[in-house]
TrEMBL record:
Lineage, highest ranks first: unclassified sequences, metagenomes, ecological metagenomes
Protein name according to UniProt: Uncharacterized protein
Source organism of this protein record: mine drainage metagenome
Length: 254
């Protein structure tokens, strides 16, 4: 699997969706990140994600099996890894993977363990249980992208970087794979309440549980359809082109 990372603007392939708007939005995200001292890099596969996770074990829990190439069926065709660097060091990570469920749903894949494991019967622990309690999980299927693997170095957590990663997640999911749905999981509680406004309040339902095994976790499912992704991108571009936003970017670039 590919491990090489290249600058985002050199590596991104704008294929699906409203291409001019996606191109402009990705360029805008890269410019705003650069103003914060961060350059985004893009690669395929999650080996580098695993490496960064190990290097920062003091501030980051072990990777979920969903993003761990040792556990899950992850290929270069189904995985995007984004790394933000400051002075050559990683300060933010984001992972997006693609699933194809033409005759299945998120609920079925989650509860069977296939959402996370290459071979659930062999890899899941005896007491491990995945429960899809969010009602929407039973209707999400087809081509689905899942964004996660988020980590921010402590000194970058209070900046605008989370907003930029949300924009990247939408753009890259749509233009790379043209999914029927893009989904995410937020730990239910303070974290989900803090992040939902940053993500623009997408539809959200609690009840995605993991009990035993890797970690006991109660997650809130968030999702957007293909048309939702397009609408978010159009709205972001329209907002960015308002005169006051343009003036603010000019001031920040000086």
């Amino acid at each position: 699997m590919e491990n090489q990372l290249n600058l985002l603007l050199d590596a991104v392939d704008v294929t699906y969706g409203p291409r001019p708007e996606i191109g402009r939005y990705i360029l805008l995200i890269a410019e705003q990140a650069r103003a914060l001292g961060v350059t985004f890099h893009l690669g395929r596969g999650f080996e580098r994600l695993l490496e960064v996770n190990r290097l920062h074990a003091d501030s980051w829990s072990p990777l979920a099996p969903t993003f761990d190439p040792r556990c899950s069926e992850i290929t270069a065709d189904t995985a995007l890894y984004i790394e933000g660097r400051h002075d050559g060091e990683p300060v933010v990570t984001l992972a997006i993977r693609r699933y194809d469920w033409p005759a299945s749903t998120l609920a079925e894949e989650w509860e069977s363990g296939r959402f996370a494991y290459r071979d659930p019967a062999r890899q899941m622990q005896a007491e491990e249980r995945w429960v899809a309690g969010a009602p929407a999980a039973a209707s999400i299927g087809g081509r689905v992208t899942f964004g996660g693997g988020l980590w921010f170095r402590r000194d970058f957590r209070g900046r605008r970087i989370p907003l930029l990663t949300a924009g990247l997640m939408r753009c890259l999911s749509l233009t790379t794979w043209n999914p029927d749905y893009a989904i995410g999981m937020l730990e239910t509680g303070l974290l989900s309440r803090a992040l939902l406004p940053l993500y623009g309040h997408p539809p959200a339902q609690a009840g995605m549980l993991v009990e035993g095994g890797w970690k006991t976790l109660d997650s809130t499912l968030i999702w957007e359809s293909r048309e939702d992704l397009k609408a978010r991108i159009y709205a972001a571009i329209n907002k960015a082109e308002q005169p006051e936003a343009v003036e603010r970017r000019i001031r920040n670039s000086r």
